[in-house]
Design a protein that fits this description.
Layout (H helix, E strand, L loop, with lengths): L1 H25 L13 H14 L13 E4 L13 H13 L12 H5 L3 H6 L1 H13 L4 H14 L15 H12 L3 E9 H4 L3 H5 L6 E11 L2 E10 L5 H10 L5 E4 L5 H8 L6 E6 L20 H9 L2 E4 H4 L8
Parallel strand pairs: 1-2, 1-5, 2-3, 5-6, 6-7
Antiparallel strand pairs: 3-4
Helix pairs in contact: 1-8, 3-6
Length: 330
């Protein structure tokens, strides 16, 4: 009961922060981005919204066509030291291990059960895909949603000792609220699976399930029941992100926010289209309040984005210089 009450209080605080940002952005004269320092990145957001939402402007976008896309891991919430969904998948391996005695001698499951992080890292993307497929399939979307919701209710980040859903970026909550206040539809385009994100994105970000694009599994309907299969249908990362945007959102966005080279193609796709565009990259350069990483990181690696941002007109958001705070409540 205590865990449930803590989770409810945490959620309430987060929703209050998000609603405060929404009200601030809607009130004339109020600061629409209170957690952003004055500077070129903050101004770029305001200038873009002014140009695209002012009738008579050469860059005006009709409300029905306004769309902004946001990566999730590392753009809207913390992704170090491991992607949150990867942490969830590893814990699912341990929970399901008694039902799979063969995992004791089969990689990459053996490395998970032995806590051999080095061997697990050597398994690469193939190992990660196998773990996700084995722990996320064989059940209905509703059953999986219940498991995710329960896990997020008690799981805590190893460094910050707070629920993962509290470790969202307050400045980005304000951006989401401001874009919506200006008539934009906001959507998440992430490498995480849609079933992992959809149970909570509306409560935390204000982004409904139908506006969440992510990696998808094949499904089959049999005996009156929808089942997730272990075969991946779309990897919504890198070049898969423009595919996901076109397939599931059906409209070209005018703005895109990312943080790693996994977002490069999304930024390229969005900002390369005609008309006024905005591309922004959250650069993690604040080891004190969060983490500092880019080129050499095993999570959220950023090389091409750093090298090409200036020539492509993308804005590098400095977490250290541009944000007065990182997380809600601090």
């Amino acid at each position: 009961m205590e865990t449930v009450m803590l989770a409810r209080r945490s959620l309430g605080a987060l929703l209050l922060a998000a609603s405060t940002a929404t009200l601030a952005s809607a009130q004339p004269g109020a600061d629409p981005l209170p957690s952003w320092r004055e500077g070129p990145r903050r101004q770029a957001i305001l200038d873009f919204l002014r140009a695209t939402t002012t009738e008579g402007s050469a860059d005006f976008v009709p409300p029905s066509e306004r769309l902004a896309t946001f990566d999730n891991d590392g753009t809207l919430w913390v992704e170090q030291p491991l992607y949150t969904q990867f942490v969830f998948a590893l814990e699912r391996v341990r929970a399901l291990a008694p039902q799979h005695p063969e995992w004791v001698s089969r990689e990459p499951f053996r490395s998970v059960l032995d806590n051999d992080h080095a061997a697990l890292a050597r398994s690469g993307e193939r190992g990660l895909a196998e773990i996700v497929a084995a722990t996320h399939a064989g059940m209905s979307p509703d059953e999986f949603r219940a498991i995710v919701t329960d896990w997020l209710g008690h799981a805590q980040h190893p460094r910050f000792r707070r629920p993962y859903t509290e470790l969202v970026y307050q400045p980005m909550l304000e951006v989401l609220a401001l874009f919506r206040a200006r008539g934009f539809r906001t959507a998440i385009v992430s490498g995480g699976t849609v079933e992992f994100m959809r149970p909570w994105t509306e409560r935390i970000y204000g982004v409904p399930p139908e506006a969440v694009v992510g990696t998808t599994f094949q499904m089959r309907f049999e005996n009156g029941r929808l089942l997730r299969l272990p075969q991946i249908d779309l990897v919504d990362d890198g070049p898969g992100k423009p595919v996901g945007i076109s397939r599931f959102l059906g409209r070209m966005p005018q703005a895109a926010f990312g943080n790693s080279d996994g977002d490069y193609e999304m930024l390229q796709y969005v900002t390369g289209a005609p008309g006024r565009r905005l591309g922004m990259i959250v650069h993690h350069d604040d080891a004190e309040r969060e983490y500092a990483y880019d080129r050499d990181s095993h999570i959220g690696r950023l090389v091409r984005g750093l090298d090409d941002a200036a020539q492509r007109g993308w804005h590098l958001i400095s977490m250290k210089q541009d944000w007065t705070r990182v997380f809600p409540g601090g």
